Amino acid sequence: MNCFSARARFFGPLILLLILLPSVVSAQPPARVVHVFVALADNQYQGIEPVPARLGDGDAPASNLYWGAAFGVKTYFRSSSDWKLISAGPGPKSVVLERCVFKNRNADVYLVADAYRGRNIRDAVTDFLTAASGLNSQTLVVTSGQSGASLRIGGGADLVAYVGHDAFMDFQIPPISGTKGTKPRAAIMLACASKPYFAPYLKYTGADPLLWTTNLMVPEAYTLRAAIEGWIGGETGASVRMRVARAYDKYQHCGLQAAERLFATGW
Q1: Beta-sheet pairing, 159-163 with 186-190
Q2: CA neighbor of 149 nearest in space, from 33, 3, 4
Q3: 12-34 pLDDT, tens digit each
Q4: pTM value?
């Protein structure tokens, strides 16, 4: 065998691999994204049962019941061993006081959480339903260490969630229509009696309700985390509901059966 033939046998497969490598890399599935819309608790501008002033200041995310308090979205996920805080800073528009991005340590899943000023709760529910409709898809580029990722948020997210006061107990907005599309969209609504109040709106969006509530509740982040981690694991809606009920009972001590009745999945 001459030297040319030997080199051809050695380099041929290597050249082929280098040619195919870009298509192999591009074929990797993109990271899944959860986009959470949090309406900060606000004693003055929302019809909530009043909470201590520090927790109910809708202009102060650092101490707010649904964001910076012990069981608020930012604090609770930041303290979780399963989630890593990638970034925290001002939101993309004035009504969003802070945006946090978390990365799950066990799966290729990112969580983008936006803290809306309490008085702008209308914007929070409108943006949530817009995303649930598959509209206003955006790209968010994040970096962690030496790696980065381009995340589809808003209407491009895989799972959208609303956390806060049930705004539709206080006012109504025009419905926002969407379609089923080729990419399944699931929605979580953690607010008091969200199923009866959000159902007429969610029907228009084309999204599927992974989790919502039937009665009064405290929308703290342990329920959100339980629901998201069940979704990451590919659990059924019924399994996610039970996982969330156990988490809620653990912190609220309301009894497992009562917690089961409080949460619902599907239509």
Answers
A1: parallel
A2: 33
A3: 555 554 455 444 444 567 899 99
A4: 0.89
